[in-house]
Protein 1
Amino acid sequence: MSTLRTALTAPTQYINVNGINYAYRRFGKPSEFPLVGFQHFTGTLDNWDPLILEGLAQEREVLIFDNAGVGNSTGETPDNVADMAHDAVDFLNALGVYKFDVLGFSLGGFIAQYLAVKYPELVRKLVIVGAAPQGAKVLEHFPELIYNAMQKDPEERFLYIFFTATTTSRNKGKETLKRLFTRTEDRDKETAQESVLAQMAAITRWGADPVTMDLKMIPHPVFIVQGSDDKMMDSDNSYALFKQLSNAVLTYYPDAAHGSFYQYPQRFVNQANDFLNNF
Amino acid sequence: MSTLRTALTAPTQYINVNGINYAYRRFGKPSEFPLVGFQHFTGTLDNWDPLILEGLAQEREVLIFDNAGVGNSTGETPDNVADMAHDAVDFLNALGVYKFDVLGFSLGGFIAQYLAVKYPELVRKLVIVGAAPQGAKVLEHFPELIYNAMQKDPEERFLYIFFTATTTSRNKGKETLKRLFTRTEDRDKETAQESVLAQMAAITRWGADPVTMDLKMIPHPVFIVQGSDDKMMDSDNSYALFKQLSNAVLTYYPDAAHGSFYQYPQRFVNQANDFLNNF
C-alpha cells in the first residue's frame, strides 16, 4: 500500500503564475473535483485544522493554498475580494484545476460567493463557514474587533476571535490550537503586515461597498455553517445569506463563535462529506 | 435470523391508560432509549413517512402513537399543548418508557418543547421539525391557512401545506404521498372532527397565550429542522427557537416548506441518526 500524503505530511509545493510564487499543499483520496480551501483573514496553510482536513481528505482530494501575498506566497495581496478571487482562479487554472468544490472560511467565504457568481462554471459545490453576504453592516466593526484582539496574547486572541466565553467552548479552542501546531516541519511563515492591512481593507469593503451580486443567481448547492454567537460576522448574517440563495443548506452549532467548525470538527466533517458526496 | 418489525409491518397495538385506549406501533433495533414520534395536526400513525421511520429504526427503536382522541386512540383530545404532553407521559410510563428521545413534528414539536421544560428527566434528546416557539405570532393565521387548504382536493391540500410551489418540491411531495400509502393493512382511521378542532385550538393558543416557558432552561441537545419556506410556522421561527436554546443544532433545507423532512428523507435520516448517536 502506498502511503497517502496527509494534511500533516503533504509537502508545501510552489507554482509560479503571473510572476507570483504560490505556496500550496495537495493530499487525500484522488477525486474528480478537489476541494479547495479559501482561508480566513491572515490565515495560512497552517491555520487549517488538520483534523478537519484529514476527515475531508478521507473522501476527496483537498487542495489548500496561500493566496497572493499570504504566508509563503509572494506577490501583492489585493485590497478587494474580486481580485483575490481572480488570483485564485489564475493559480488553480495553472495547476490544471478547472472545476472544484470550495471550502471558504470567513474572508474565504466571501471569495466563495464571488467565485460562484462570477465563475459559475468553475465551481461545483460550496461550503461556507463563518461568513456573511456582501453589504453586511457588522463588518464596519471589524477593524475595532481585530484591534481589541491584538491587545491579547496569542492564545487569548485565538480564543477571543474563534470561540465563545464559556469554559466548554474555550477548552475546545485550546484543543484546536494544539492541533494547529501538530505539524512541526515545513510550516508556513506568518502573513506580512502589508498583506494583513490589504485583507482588512477587503473585508471592510465587503460590508461597505454597494451590493453588486445577486446571490439568487447562484445555482450551486451551498452548505453554510455558522456558530450561535459569531460576533465578527454576526450569526444572523448566515441566515440572511441562506435566504438569498436558492439551493443552500444551513446549519448552526450551539455555543459557538466564528470558529464553529474548529469546535465541532467531527460533526462538521460528517455533514460536509455528506453534502459533498450526496446533495 | 428473526424478522424485525418494520414501519410497514409493525402491528398496531393498544394499551389502556386512564380509561383511554392508546394505539401505537414499536419497531426497529432495540436501544436503551426509544425515539418517540409526536405527530402533526390531524396526523396519525400512517402520516409518518415510512422511509424516514425505517432509516431511523436501523439504529434505534422507534415508537409512534396516536395521542388521546387521535386516529385509533379513544379519549378526548385536549385543547392545549400541556395536556397533550401529560397524556403522552401517562401513555409512555404505562408502557414502562421512562426515558426517551423525541421526534416532534409541527404540533408535535410544541409538545416536545413542553416535555423538555416540564419533564426534563424523561427526555434525553429532541428532534424538532417544522415548529415554532411559544408565542409565535404567525399561528394566528393557522385556522385561515387550514381553511384554504380544505378547499383543495386531498393531494393538492397535502402539497399546499407541506411543499413549496416549485415543480421539484411538488414532485417530492407526490413521492411522499405515495410512501404514506405503502402500508395497506392495519391502517389508522382518520382523526375525528372534534379532535381536529381541539388541536386547532391548541395550536392557535400556543401562539396567542402568554409565553410561560423559559427555553434557555432546556439543557438537552436539540436538533431543529426546517424548510426555507414554511408559511405555516414562518421559517424564521426556527432560528428564533434556536436562539432561545442553549444546546441546539439548527438545519434549514432549500426550497422546502412545512414538510422539509418529507422532502429530504435521506439527508434528514443521516443527520438525525448522527445527532442521536453522537452529539
Note: The domain at 13-278 of chain A is CATH 3.40.50.1820 (Rossmann fold).
Protein 2
Amino acid sequence: MLIREATAADWPAIWPFFHVIVAAGETYPYPRDLGEPAGRQMWMLPPPGRTVVAVDPDGTVLGSAKMNPNSTGGGSHIASASFMVDPRYARRGVGRALGEHVLAWARAEGYRGIQFNSVIETNTAAVALWQSLGFEIMTTIPEGFRHPAKGFVGFHIMYRRL
Amino acid sequence: MLIREATAADWPAIWPFFHVIVAAGETYPYPRDLGEPAGRQMWMLPPPGRTVVAVDPDGTVLGSAKMNPNSTGGGSHIASASFMVDPRYARRGVGRALGEHVLAWARAEGYRGIQFNSVIETNTAAVALWQSLGFEIMTTIPEGFRHPAKGFVGFHIMYRRL
C-alpha cells in the first residue's frame, strides 16, 4: 500500500466510496444528500490543507484522508483530519496507514497536536484505532449525533499531543 | 438594552469593536489581520445562522452575537455561538443578555444543546459567564491556543444541554 498526494484525477475513484459513507450517515456529520461537487470541495483541500489517497500496487484507491489546521489565528497550530476507507477494502490496515501518515505530516509541519472534533461513539473501530495511535477521548458530547438507526448517540472529541 | 436582529446597516457599528477584539488575538482563534470583508462574511450569518446586536436606548450598538448550527447532517441539532462586546461597554451585562438571548433562540429552534468549541482559558470573564448560564467545561485542549502575551494556553470546549 502506498500513500500519496491526491490529485484531481483521483476524485472519480474517491467519490463512490465517499458517497456511500456520507449517504449512510453513520460516521460523519455531513449532509447525507451531499452532492458530488460539494463533496469534492469539502474533501479535496488546497494548502494549508492536504488530501492523500492510499493505493494498492495496481493503483486501486483504497481510502483517502484529508488533513488541515483545525482552526485559524491563535488556534492554527492544532491540526485535524478526516478519513474514509472504501468498505470493500476494510480490515486491511488502510485506516491505520492513513492515520500514521497524518501523524507524520502533522509533526513535519510543526503542528503541536491533532484534534478530532467528532468521532461518533458507535464507530467503535475508529475510536479503537485512534486510541491505538495515541489519541485520547477528551470528552463526549452526549446525544450530540443523530445516528440513522441508533438515534441520538454521543460523539467524542479526541486529541493527541505531538 | 434591546437585542434585535442585526442588519447590513449595523455592520459599520459592529466592525470597529469586532476589529479591536480580533486584532488583539486574545480571545478568538481568528486571524489577527482579518480584513473587513472577511470579518463581515464570518460574522453576519445568513439562515440557518443568525446575528443579533445589543443596543442601548439611543441605538448605540453595545455588542453582537452570532449563532448557528455547530455542524451539519447528524450533528445539526447542536448549536454554537460567538459573542463580541464593545470593550467600552464592558461590565454592563451585555454578554449575559446576549447569552440568554442565544439560549432562548436555540431552545425555540429546537436545538438539543449548545457547544462552544474554543473558549480561551485565560478569558476568565467569559468562562465564568458561561458557567453561570449553565455551560460546563467538557474538556480543555492543553496549549491549544497561542495567546500573544501569555504564550500557549488551553482552550475549553463548553457545552450546555437544552
Note: Chain A has four helices and seven strands.
